[in-house]
UniProtKB/TrEMBL annotation:
Protein name per the record: Polysaccharide transporter, PST family
PANTHER family the UniProt entry points to: LIPOPOLYSACCHARIDE BIOSYNTHESIS PROTEIN WZXC, PST FAMILY PREDICTED COLANIC ACID TRANSPORTER
InterPro entries hit by this protein: Poly_Biosynth_Transport
GO cellular component: plasma membrane
Amino acid sequence: MRSIRVPLVSMRPAFGGSAATWVLIQQVLVRGLVALKFLAIGRMLGPAAIGSVSVALLSVAIAESLSDTGLAQAVVQAKTTPTRTELGAVWTTLTTRGALIALLLIALAPLMNAQFHLGGSLALLQLAAALPLLRGLASPAYYVVQRERRFQQLAGVEISAAFADCAIGLACAWGGAGAYAVLLGMMVGESLKTGLTWTTMTPRPPVRLAWHGIGHYVNFSRWIWAGSVVNLLLNQFDKVLVAKLLGPVALGAYQMSSKLAQMLLADAAIALGQYLFPTFSAHYRREDGSAARLFIRCLALITVGLVAIVLVLRMTAGPLFMFVLGPAWMSAVPLFRIFVINMAIGAVIAILVAYLRAIGAPKAATQASVLQVIMLVAIVPPATHWWGVTGVAWAMTAGLAASAGWMLYRTVKRP
């Protein structure tokens, strides 16, 4: 009999070095490890410990946002690949920034300890200062790899760092390190990632102090910095308010409900944005309209999927918290039902920001963030008066919706 040949579909394109498959694998493994770490430590230690470490991480986030140079995004978006000399200047800038942030956090730790009612958590705040320094020491070749869409290599580095973070964090928690376990795991993970950027990625910049050669990045990066400052108000305002008024226990419940919603919704879109930003940029450089067509397809598919996921999570919120975190966390369920909506809108915003930055319009994303701030200033006071912390969460929803609406408008009505 004549044999029948069935054509085989090559898997090579799906697992090529620049394939989106690697972004998906990275997302699933990295976010899965982060979820395992935080949920396991949260169940072991309870809201108070999570609230204390959240304040420490909040201080890092505030300092990094206020000093964001935008150089990473500028390297990815630029029309020409940076030279080794330019990368040396980028490394000098980022390392200096990390060192200054670390020193500032150490100096301000006693003040923050008093303001957020942390009691004996001064050392926790000071330990967190090591994180921005470790990140600043990393090689800027990482951004060149991202620019060239070598997602397989990026996935290897990120997954290795996440595994080290999770393993050390859980080991320290089981060993009785308490809230310090979260930071110790993060420090080991960041150290490994920094080391891998120097040993596995090229071109390696010269290790010397050099400040000149990156002036052409400033016009683009200044809008990234402005956006980071505005986003600082948007992303950390509610946490600062809860921590200041209600203390670490309430912040722990608030933060965990937000974190769980982020893990289930926004993290996937953020990871997809890491793939889409250089991909949109590459299509935009062709000047054939392919970037806009790709953007429309991605946005439509993501929006439909998010709506379905939000409906399911809102219906199953109570059993989910009981199963994952236990009865100590049930007070966070009403907030979680709001946060899944917020994170879904945030997921859409992540795609919009990736596209606007790729087409050289980061200003539009910054304008959207300013609009969101205006909404919050107008809505938060009355909402807090009438509905308390739940009102703050709904005010965030309104601000996110306004921000997403403005960016959608700007993608259609480009100047």
